[in-house]
Specification:
- α4 packs antiparallel against α18, α5 packs across α8 and α24 crosses α28.
- The chain is of the alpha/beta class.
- The protein is built from 36 helices and 25 strands.
- The strands form 5 sheets. An 8-stranded parallel barrel has the order 1-2-3-4-5-6-7-8, surrounded by 6 helices.
- It is globular, with a radius of gyration of 32 Å.
- Helix content is 46%, strand content 12%.
């Protein structure tokens, strides 16, 4: 039996300085070697700069339209989306919008390359026709006789296609093979990449599988008789073969994807091809290696040296991955091919780590560290020859020269470049070292699939720090391009980027970011699951309070108000921060409680815990500023004027069941921080969470006299609202109950007290023809179905432009079909139960009505119990949806591009104004919608749930609430009264300070 290594394991986000301390001493070479590297790299750089390609390439495009210019950015957006747009009207708006952002009219073409000149000419022509600020209707209406709108669209589309044709080898594998055929006896190696986004649906995954299988057969037939490694290859993306390629779905992925990958590998083996599994994002690395290890273990692949994978040097675990791959090769007595790349999704990795509140980043934050790690990984791979066949993918002349020096004369490796890039460098390399092989990584697919890939490549290589951008810029001296990454780092403490804070310090110095868990890190996920499972939760019923007990709680809170309101703001804030410490230390307990009483999935429970800690920290920080010191006001000499804020009295906090910890603590801590005493009334469905939250706050230092808990149903809430001695109410729940509370407050004699209400809404999203369908599908499924649709912010009504509606609806339905519904304690569950039987009955009744009145696009299957499966209905008119439906039910309405104003009117007619999503690449459209609607939270080109405290203050208008927004800078002030104190300081005989002043 082979000695199979255990599953891959390495620290997910280790410290940059620790890695630098290990790598810096290992990459220094002797003076003769460094001198040879300089000579080789200089020769390659000079070749790049001397190249005069009449057609032009990526380097020419980057020189012409730098990404630091408006033209460059507008061009990228235009390229990414234009060829997806099917209707003329939207295309006209889109072209006007993007060409208006840059000065294409006065753009003086610097390049002699045909590709660049043709693109610049077409874009400039279009920009002259469509002037910035003019509407498509007016402009094109006037010019249609002279030039015609079709000519404008054609010119711009052709400019985009001209770019695309140069960067894609062929729209089909047959076309690509024809272009790849050797000319005049030369032999080139290719690796073909079938373009496309990751699969969202099972249909997508099957289509990608069929495309890979067909490509392998076609490539194999044309491969000739040369042995590996001198044979063509194909790159396979695991996320294209499975619609839920994610860590929490590991069991399903292993059962369904491994046979698919093995099938493709066996087909590639028949033709002795190079078969490379492409790299994925950092959170998918462990899952990818699990799939690769399981596939590689199959005996049917024995005797084949073509299996391989890509490793990203910007990932801190790259060296560990190489060690693991070598262990697999040893265990199975195989030779493997390893493509070393630097990495293409750096910005995404940084953002994800910040959003997740991780301890660090899984990738390096400085490019020099990536380059340093690339050299270290190259050394390691070269030392593992011949068991590992290294494939060095780079367009960096210094990296190429360094690898050449490290490799020596032993061979057994190759370089790789992207099709359309690096031609000059590798042509020179081939002249100087004809024995060194290089492979071209060639994208194959339609222009529509190409452009997302193209933009990513251009962004990756067009940044100011990129070698490709600098190498083609004559203003950058060659000596600057020869600087070694170790010399840029110098010392380990300089390994991390000084302007990119760690995720935990994202909101520093005011407060810390809440701590999260990366589910893609097996050790962290397993530890959390073990800890949550070990928790003992007491779910014995909690008795409802009586009206007398509610009255007694108000009286006790009133008695405790004076002492608490006089407690210094710093002391109150410190108690909130201590509550955070306790919450984070007891995270497994509260997660278990949220799952068992609230029916939360693991992801939702963790997110809610983080939101609760964010509320505590944010209100503590805000409270120190607002309540710490009186504000001196301007005024005449001899007088002091000070403005102070103080608590109102007893605040009643009535919270909902859908966020029984986060909203409960958010309401309570805001009221407490403002100096109020609090009577908290949680939802009747989730009292246990409230009991434990109040106990924790008391332990953190909130006096029992200042915070009181009253459990019960709506009747208890009504009794509290009607109590004559309360100073205010903060409420989150239904619009109907908010109205009832408002009437009760208005009917009382005595002081007029505030109601801070956040209610629901018929939340909408608008998706036009420029939107990326895969992104729309992701964001719609998340917004409509996560948390079983039981969020105030959840998507209820999707307006989709009719020109793209069929494809988008089909993709959304297919993605919804892949969601797992069931036990929330199962980590693989995406959708848990609805809160109770009553909620299920209401939702089932609505589904039954919709089946009679609307067109059904998708109906999921739910297990027994309080589960409601996702449903998607298409309405003939938005007016058919007359109230908020609080569950996983999506309603869709098609609209014509010219009728966008009617869509906005339909949204207004609902009377709600909580959340809105917009998916469009037309900035003018986005700005017009934002300016037109009165909606509290608007999300553009992303999902519309999960507002982050202090980042996206949350709350609506109209029927959706009173404001101010929770988690925002104006929230605490609503819990307070203001007091101005004016003192005549001259009353005692004059203003001494003024009289003593110098001239």
């Amino acid at each position: 039996m082979p000695n199979i290594p255990p599953p891959f394991s390495a620290a997910y986000a280790p410290d940059d300085a620790d890695i630098a301390a290990r790598l810096l001493p290992s990459v220094h070479l002797g003076p003769p070697q460094e001198a040879r590297i300089d000579r080789t790299a200089t020769r390659l750089i000079e070749a790049i700069r001397k190249r005069d390609d009449r057609l032009g390439g990526v380097e020419d495009m980057l020189r012409e339209f730098a990404l630091s210019t408006k033209e460059g950015l507008a061009l990228m957006v235009l390229a990414e989306a234009l060829l997806r747009v099917p209707d003329a009207r939207t295309a006209d708006q889109f072209i006007e919008d993007k060409l208006g952002e840059g000065d294409f009219i006065h753009h003086e073409t610097k390049s002699t390359a045909f590709l660049v000149n043709a693109s610049a000419w077409a874009l400039g022509l279009s920009a002259r026709v469509i002037q910035p600020g003019e509407t498509p209707d007016g402009t094109i209406g006037r010019l249609v006789k002279r030039l015609g709108a079709p000519a404008v669209r054609t010119a711009t589309r052709q400019a985009m296609r001209l770019m695309g044709n140069h960067f894609v080898l062929g729209e089909t594998i047959a076309q690509a093979l024809e272009r790849a055929r050797p000319r005049s006896g030369e032999r080139q190696r290719y690796s073909f990449d079938m373009l496309g986004e990751g699969a969202r649906t099972a249909t997508d995954a099957r289509r990608y599988f069929d495309a890979y299988a067909s490509a392998i057969l076609t490539i194999g037939k044309a491969a000739g008789s040369h042995p590996l490694p001198d044979r063509p290859g194909i790159s396979v993306k695991l996320s294209a073969l499975h619609p839920r390629f994610e860590a929490i779905s590991r069991d399903g992925v292993m059962a369904e994807l491994v046979p698919q990958l093995l099938d493709l590998a066996q087909r590639a083996k028949v033709h002795d091809l190079n078969f490379t599994v492409d790299a994925e994002e950092a959170d998918r690395l462990e899952l990818s290696l699990d799939v690769i290890a399981a596939t590689l273990a199959d005996p049917s692949l024995a005797g084949w040296d073509g299996f391989g994978l890509a490793i990203q040097a910007y990932q801190k675990r790259a060296g560990d991955v190489i060690d693991y791959v070598d262990a697999l090769a040893r265990a199975h007595d195989r030779k493997l091919m390893v493509r070393l790349v630097k990495g293409a999704y750096w910005d995404t990795e940084i953002k994800r780590a910040q959003e997740r509140g991780l301890d660090g980043y899984p990738v390096f934050t400085r490019k020099a560290m990536t380059d340093l790690n690339y050299v270290a990984c190259a050394q390691k791979l070269l030392s593992l020859r011949p068991r590992i066949f290294p494939q060095f993918a780079t367009h960096n002349a210094l990296s190429v020269a360094t690898v050449l020096e490290l490799a020596g004369a032993n061979g057994g490796f190759e370089f790789q470049r992207l099709h359309g890039m690096g031609e000059a460098l590798y042509e020179q390399l081939a002249k100087d070292h004809p024995d060194i092989a290089y492979r071209t990584y060639a994208p194959v697919g339609s222009h529509r699939d190409l452009l997302a890939y193209l933009v990513r490549r251009l962004l990756e290589n067009g940044a100011n720090s990129s070698f490709v951008a600098q190498a083609s810029d004559y203003r950058v001296p060659v000596t600057a391009l020869l600087q070694r990454p170790a010399d840029a780092i110098v010392r380990p403490q300089h390994a991390a980027h000084p302007k990119i804070p760690l995720p935990g310090d994202l909101f520093a110095p005011e407060r810390r970011n809440s701590r999260g868990v990366e589910f893609g890190a097996r050790a962290a996920l397993d530890r959390l699951l073990t800890e949550v499972k070990a928790e003992t939760i007491d779910l014995k019923p909690i008795a409802d309070a009586t009206p007398d007990q509610a009255n007694a709680a108000v009286a006790a809170a009133r008695a405790g108000f004076a002492a608490w309101s006089r407690t210094p703001a710093a002391t109150r804030a410190a108690a909130l921060e201590q509550a955070v410490h306790l919450l984070e230390n007891r995270a497994p307990h509260f997660i278990a409680l949220l799952q068992r009483e609230g029916g939360k999935t693991l992801d939702d429970a963790l997110s809610e815990l983080r939101e609760a800690t964010d509320f505590c920290r944010y209100y503590a920080a805000q409270g120190r500023k607002l309540f710490g010191n009186d504000v001196a006001m301007p005024g005449p000499t001899g007088e002091s004027n000070a403005l102070a804020m103080r608590g109102r009295g007893v605040f009643v906090a009535i919270s909902p069941w859908n966020f029984p910890l986060a909203i409960f603590l958010g309401q309570v801590t805001a009221a407490l921080m403002a100096g109020n005493s609090v009577v908290a009334k949680p939802a009747e469905q989730t009292p246990r969470i409230a009991v434990e939250a109040v106990r924790l706050l008391h332990e953190a230092g909130i006096p029992a006299s200042a915070l009181h808990l009253v459990t019960g149903d709506g009747r208890i809430g009504a009794a509290l609202a009607a109590h004559p001695d309360i100073g205010g109410i903060v409420f989150t729940g239904s619009t109907e109950v908010a109205r009832s509370i408002n009437r009760a407050l208005a009917a009382k004699d005595g002081p007029i007290v505030p109601l801070i209400a956040e209610t629901g809404g018929i939340n909408t999203m608008i998706a036009d023809a420029t939107a990326l369908p895969e992104q729309v599908a992701d964001d719609v499924v998340t917004s409509a179905f996560r948390s079983a649709g039981q969020r105030c912010s959840a998507l209820r009504l999707l307006f989709v432009q009719e020109d793209v509606a069929d494809r988008m609806i089909e993709m959304i339905a297919g993605a919804a079909r892949e969601l797992k519904i069931g036990d929330p304690s199962d980590v693989a569950t995406h959708i848990g139960p609805v809160i109770d039987v009553e909620a299920k009955q209401r939702l089932d009744a609505h589904i039954a009505r919709m089946k009679r009145e609307a067109r059904l696009h998708f109906a999921g299957t739910a297990p027994e119990g309080c589960f409601v499966a996702p449903h998607i209905f298409e309405l003939g008119d938005a007016g058919q949806l007359t109230e908020e439906v609080f569950g996983p039910i999506l309603h869709v309405v098609r609209y014509r591009a010219e009728n966008l104003e009617r869509v906005l009117q339909a949204i207004e007619r609902t009377g709600y104004g909580l959340t809105l999503g917009i998916h469009s690449r037309i900035d003018d459209t986005i700005e017009a919608i934002v300016d037109r609607v009165q909606i509290g939270n608007i999300y553009v080109n992303r999902n519309m749930i999960g507002a982050v405290v202090g980042v996206q203050p949350f709350g609506g208008n109209g029927l959706s609430g009173t404001g101010p927004k929770a988690g925002g800078p104006h929230y605490l002030a609503r819990f307070a009264t203001e007091q101005t104190v004016t003192i005549n300081t001259a009353a005692a005989g004059g203003n001494a300070a003024l009289l003593a002043g110098d001239e």
